[in-house]
Specification:
heterodimer; A: 240 residues; alpha/beta; Rossmann fold; 4-stranded antiparallel beta sheet; 38% helix; globular; B: 360 residues; D-Maltodextrin-Binding Protein, domain 2; 4 strands; 6% strand; elongated
């Protein structure tokens, strides 16, 4: 689903992402771990076509991100770090808008997303102003909006920051459901307990790969009991 | 190729923002009205009820007729002459009068001269007093005795009402300002809120975003134009001699130009605040100073005259003054209209290109 070689991004003399190589399969939940500024968001933005890579190549759903960004954009859903739906629109109007700019007819979009909205318990809030919804609901609605065009690939950039633990667990159940349905889910997070839910993770520091693999394998390799310890061992305890 | 469905989705969403945001509605409807009223009454350049002292040393029928004519106009109020106060020094320093007229003994019998003294502390008013007083005396002179008879005929605004001059100007100024302000805010707001990122990650193109943002504001801009025109005509009795559809057509072009200025600004400004300041700076002063709104372009230094060619209001002023006062038709205005259309297109293309660059 995603294949990159030596992917890099420089902003002037600062190198934000330095030679990242990834191979992510369909249906995989893949986690980006790292402290703030480690290069997670920049990498995700390059894969989404929001930023142009300074070096290396990246294929997303078989399309080159630097040359076929329109095709790439149609293949993915993206939920940004910052909550970015319109608070002055009703929930359903937000959905309608995103369906519109992806060129998906609204009834079709509702068909795609209805099962997910049922799972999330969002149906009853569809006619409320988005700004009046609790944070957890806004987060779920963001995810639904990212999926209006039924993309095979979803990017979630720190989707659970600012959400209570209960809502976080529920959110992860949905991510699991999505992966089981065949969607590829790319998540960045700084919650190490969430890292355990990922099929595979990459740990990044200063734009570089520090470690990559399945959480269980990584724990064995570095002889730690959980991802928290692994992270401290790899990156130092100033972070996490 | 821009996709109509995506443009429609953008436009619809924008309309929701406008209708639900009281701030936009205030900018759209309250601000223009306030400006029209404040500017309209403050910018009144006619003189009215100027206090005038008349010292009549003649006391004959001719001098009485002269005094009668002066007190019958609404431009002057004849104030009583206090003892020994004819000295201009005392008269004007005390502000008891702004002008004095001395009628010599034997007026129109042996003497044909009058002395008019004017307080020129405000030269504008002084000039006006001079020309009004001269005109009054001349018209009387023409009636009373044969002499050189020069009768200026003023066309399109026979009463020389300044409202004829500034109401069209205000429409031009308010429209460009409001429209540029609205679009510039609407994009920078999305940047500030982070919603722009979510739009940019979708396949929607820069042109589609910009067109979708401009469309609803075109309708609102036209509504604004009608509002200002209607209230302006009602409050200041300005005529509308031309064709209404012609007015709508050209105003559409002007509104479009102004909206595109706003789009251009929003590709430069990063915050709503900066966008507002920039939009105001670009539209307000050039429109007031360099469009021919207040100061005639012909009397500007050559360099400034050249600059006026890039001020959209310059063209719209020709159009709207032409339509409202002279009843101009398309044939007389199409050049200005084409210039505005060209400006809009250029701004839109440049904005779309710059907008694309920002995707990184």
């Amino acid at each position: 689903m995603i294949h990159t070689t030596n992917l890099s991004k420089r902003f002037g003399s600062f190198t934000a992402v330095d030679g990242i190589g990834l191979d992510i399969a369909r249906g995989e939940i893949f986690g980006f771990l790292g402290a703030n500024g480690a290069g997670k968001t920049t990498t995700i933005r390059m894969l989404c076509g929001l930023l142009r890579p300074s070096g290396g190549t990246a294929l997303v759903n078989g399309y080159d991100v630097s040359k076929q960004s329109e095709k790439v954009k149609l293949s993915l859903g993206y939920m940004s770090q910052k909550f970015s739906l319109y608070n002055d629109l009703k929930a359903i109007e937000n959905l309608q808008f995103y369906a519109g700019i992806y060129g998906t007819p609204f009834p079709t979009a509702l068909e795609y997303t209805m099962p997910l909205m049922r799972l999330f318990g969002l149906e009853s809030s569809l006619h409320a102003l988005t700004g009046s919804l609790p944070m957890g609901f806004k987060q779920r609605l963001s995810l639904v909006c990212a999926l209006v065009h039924d993309p095979p690939l979803v990017f979630l950039d720190e989707p659970t920051s600012g959400v209570d633990p209960q809502a976080r667990r529920e959110f992860w159940q949905v991510i699991n459901t999505l992966a089981q349905a065949g969607k590829t889910v790319i998540v960045s997070t700084h919650f190490m307990d969430e890292a355990e839910y990922c099929h595979r993770v990459i740990v990044m520091q200063q734009g570089r790969e520090v470690a990559m693999g399945r959480p269980a394998d990584l724990k064995t390799r570095y002889q730690v009991v959980n991802m928290q310890e692994l992270f401290i061992k790899l990156v130092g305890d100033g972070y996490a | 190729m821009p996709d109509l469905k995506r443009i429609k989705a953008m436009a619809q969403k924008e309309l929701f923002h406008i209708l639900r945001d009281p701030r936009t509605l205030v900018i759209l409807f309250l601000m223009p009205l306030l400006q029209l009223i404040i500017f309209g009454y403050a910018m009144n350049m006619e003189i009215r009820d100027v206090p005038l002292v008349i010292a009549d040393y003649s006391g004959n029928s001719a001098s009485k007729e002269l005094i009668r004519v002066f007190s019958n106009t609404r431009y002057f109020v004849v104030v009583p002459q206090a003892e020994g106060s004819l000295e201009p020094e005392t008269l004007f320093r005390n502000r008891s009068a702004q002008a004095s007229l001395v009628i010599p003994p034997g007026f129109m019998e042996s003497r044909f001269d009058l002395l008019l003294q004017i307080d020129a502390g405000d030269q504008n008013t002084a000039q006006m007093v001079q020309s009004y007083a001269t005109a009054i005396v001349a018209s009387l002179g023409a009636k009373l005795s044969a002499g050189i008879d020069l009768r200026p005929v003023v066309i399109f605004n026979p009463d020389l009402k300044s409202s004829f001059f500034f109401v069209p100007g205000l429409i031009a100024m308010i429209l460009v300002m409001i429209c540029a302000l609205l679009t510039s805010i609407s994009i920078s707001r999305e940047k500030e809120l982070g919603t722009m990122e979510q739009i940019l990650v979708s396949p929607v193109s820069a042109t589609e975003i910009l067109l979708g943002k401009v469309l609803p504001y075109i309708a609102l801009g036209l509504m604004d134009a009608l509002l200002i025109l209607g209230v302006g005509m009602l409050l200041f009795q300005v005529p509308f001699r031309g064709d209404f559809t012609v007015f709508l057509g050209f105003t559409f072009l002007y509104v479009l130009t102004a909206l595109c200025i706003g789009l251009m600004v929003s590709t430069i400004a990063k915050t709503q605040q900066a966008a507002m300041m920039m939009a105001l700076a670009i539209t307000l002063l050039p429109t007031i100073l360099l469009s021919g709104f207040m100061f005639p372009i012909a009397s500007m230094p050559p360099l400034l005259q050249k600059i006026t060619y890039i001020v959209p209001a310059r063209y719209y002023l020709q159009i709207i003054r032409g339509i409202m006062l002279k009843g101009n038709s398309i044939a007389q205005l199409y050049q200005s209209g084409l210039t505005l259309a060209g400006m809009s297109l250029l701004l839109l293309v440049v904005a779309a290109r710059r907008f694309k660059l920002r995707l990184g």
